[in-house]
Design goal:
By secondary structure, this protein is an alpha+beta fold. It folds into four domains: about 170 residues, no CATH class; about 180 residues, Anaerobic Ribonucleotide-triphosphate Reductase Large Chain; about 60 residues, no CATH class; about 100 residues. Helices cover about 35% and strands about 20% of the residues. A hairpin with a 2-residue loop joins strand 23 and strand 24. The longest helix has 29 residues.
Length: about 625
């Protein structure tokens, strides 16, 4: 039965999913991430392309446009293409392909989204087309999936796949082969041992048994081999490595099928005519490995180095200085090492502009900032050639890159056989996800015009009244655990678009005397913050209040629960002030207003947890100092 109504379209439902994701956290600390992909011929495509023009919208989504071969042909031939009703198949409108393509380019130039995926190319490599057509990927774009399929990815650390021969490092192909075989077996085991949240996910995952074995530490390997990242030799190594891994992964999957059987949908797959049996529909994927590479102590995925040297912030604001081990060894061997130079490198983020470092060393130790966008694409294409699924990689642009530069890279990615591409122009996000972490005050959209949303102050002695601003339905913040003489006190400090807006406290069982008093303090602080009272004023009033049970903690004495709340609030405010200048201020992409040019050292914002520089990887940010990560 139909109500004869009209659907509100995909964007409205994305807002619902975005709000749900905002509420549900991964592991209690990290929020989830979604991937939204819409086909280029959908009637709502223009609205979708510009969906994240307002960077406060759909903050829990990465979005990409699914480009078809037909559309790309229309772009190159400068013709129009059809918008098609996905339900009826009727043509609803025709659009100029180049105008739409340029809109995608413009939005990606502005803030990195939408990305693009070449959906026809993805489906040509779909191993089970009889089961279904692929419409989307995982949030980082490297794993195309049918409905209800799941990611099952692993990565080989290439920095450990080397051996020394006659004093020089070479690739240990035997060790790489063995690691590939064990990696395939391990990932296949995961499918059977995993607990699935829905029966449909279990059915599809076990039906196709897709796995994605990839790599990390590629940049580390090249450095030890003495091969510059942006060289033809590096491209040749890329192809040879992935061909070797893919060939041996397929052999390992066949070997498993001899004892465990082929995947249930093998008889309906495109692999049936190529192989007598196969355990897994796909075997290779290259993921960004932003978090696991930190644990492994290697460079991430197939990316260049994030930094040559950096400062890791640890407990009680202590700093631990870290230098890339290979660079440190070269610097000491060639006698240009010094603590002062290492600190300068950490501040710069790159060695490209430092005259005291030899040119051949600069050529070898490049970071993401130093590599041209074209090199990023060529490296990705070299690995894609022998990868079943897709390759996750960010094409980095300097801040002064033009929209035409982005357009050329998109066309180059299509011509070189990529399945998708994500670009990021440094400094292009005027409100990074990191602002939503530990208390960086949000920049208001009307700052550029000089307007203000804040209420004027109430004159002393006047009869004017100030009402607290309404509490939004969604806030963001952090919870700190404070040890007090009365027990553990948990202080949650949240923000809205204007700044700090509320403080919640939790101690002991609900209804207890101490718990009720701390709750009352939290309510009054929240009222004050939403009424425009400066947080430092609140801290000044609460700090130093004593109770009969003070407690010594690293960093000072906690005199009372009130004092603990003040210290937690003060710590939060200090974090806000230290990161407030982390992000460059940019004007709109229209070019009517003067843009602020930012040095390379300023384009990577600080981590909200530890203050270190962060890396932008496939729509997500990762801190290599403390492990913080967040997708938007």
């Amino acid at each position: 039965m139909s109500t004869k109504g009209i659907s509100s379209g995909p964007l409205s439902f994305m807002e619902v999913f975005n709000s749900a994701t905002e509420t549900i956290k991964q592991g209690g600390t990290r929020r989830g991430a979604n991937m939204g992909i819409l086909k280029i011929d959908h009637p709502d495509i223009l609205e979708f392309i510009t969906a994240k023009k307002d960077q406060k919208r759909l903050t829990n989504f990465n979005i990409s446009v699914a480009l078809t071969d037909k559309f790309m042909k229309a772009v190159k031939e400068k013709t129009k293409y059809d918008l098609v009703n996905p339900r009826s198949g009727d043509v609803t409108e025709q659009l100029d392909a180049n105008n739409v393509f340029d809109l995608i380019v413009n939005m990606a130039w502005r803030n990195g989204e939408p990305g693009i995926v070449f959906i026809d190319r993805i489906n040509r490599d779909n191993a089970t087309p009889d089961i279904g057509q692929i419409e989307s990927t995982n949030p980082c774009g490297e794993q195309p999936l049918l409905p209800f399929e799941s990611c099952n990815l692993g990565s080989i650390n290439l920095s450990h796949m080397l051996k020394k021969e006659e004093g020089r490092w070479t690739i240990d192909w035997d060790k790489l082969r063995e690691s590939t075989v064990w990696g395939v077996r391990f990932l296949d085991n995961v499918i059977d041992m995993n607990r699935y949240p829905l029966p449909q996910i279990e059915e599809m995952t076990k039906g196709n048994r897709k796995i994605g074995l990839g790599i990390m530490g590629f940049a580390d390997m090249l450095i030890l081999l003495g091969v510059p990242y942006d060289s033809d030799d590096a491209l040749e190594i890329s192809r040879n490595l992935m061909k070797f891994i893919h060939t041996n992964a397929r052999k390992a999957s066949q070997h498993l099928a001899e004892t465990r059987g082929s995947f249930p949908n093998f008889s309906r797959s495109t692999l049936r005519g190529k192989y007598p049996l196969m355990r897994n529909a796909t075997v290779t994927t290259i993921a960004p490995t932003g978090t696991i590479s930190i644990i492994a102590g290697s460079s991430s995925g197939i990316e260049p180095l994030f930094a040559i040297a950096y400062t890791r912030n640890v407990m009680d604001k202590d700093e631990l200085f870290e230098v890339n081990p290979a660079f440190e060894a070269v610097a000491k061997e060639r006698d240009f090492y010094s603590e002062e130079l290492m600190k300068e490198i950490a501040a710069q983020g790159s060695i490209a502009e430092l005259p005291q470092i030899p040119e051949d060393v600069k050529r070898l130790f490049v970071t993401s900032h130093d590599v041209t966008p074209e090199t990023h694409v060529r490296v990705q294409a070299a690995f894609q050639e022998y990868t079943d699924n897709a390759v996750s990689k960010t094409v980095n642009f300097p801040q002064d890159a033009t929209q035409e530069d982005v357009r050329k890279v998109y066309l180059m990615a299509y011509d070189l056989g990529l399945k998708g591409v994500t670009v990021y122009r440094y400094g292009s996000r005027d409100e990074q996800v990191l602002n939503l972490g530990k208390g960086v005050k949000r920049r208001k959209e009307n700052d550029a015009s000089g307007e203000s949303n804040t209420e004027p102050p109430v004159a002393p002695g006047s009869n004017a009244q100030r009402s607290p601003r309404p509490r939004p339905s969604v806030t963001r913040g952090t919870t700190q655990k404070m040890e007090t003489g009365c027990g553990k006190l948990y202080v949650t400090i949240n923000e809205d678009e204007h700044g700090l807006c509320e403080v919640f406290t939790q101690m002991g069982k609900s209804g207890g005397c101490t718990a009720s008093q701390s709750e009352a303090i939290g309510r009054l602080i929240s009222l004050a913050l939403r009424s425009g009272i400066e947080p430092k004023t609140v801290v000044k009033q609460l700090r130093g209040i004593r109770c009969p049970s003070p407690l010594w903690q690293p960093g000072g004495m906690i005199l009372s629960c009130s004092d603990a709340i003040a210290k937690a609030l003060e710590r939060y405010v200090e974090s806000m002030e230290s990161t407030r200048q982390a992000l460059p201020s940019l004007q709109s992409a229209g070019g009517d207003k003067k843009q602020n040019h930012v040095d390379k050292g300023d384009v990577c914002p600080e981590c909200p947890e530890c203050g270190a520089m962060v890396d932008y990887v496939e729509g997500c940010v990762v801190c290599r100092s403390c492990g913080f990560s967040r997708c938007w």
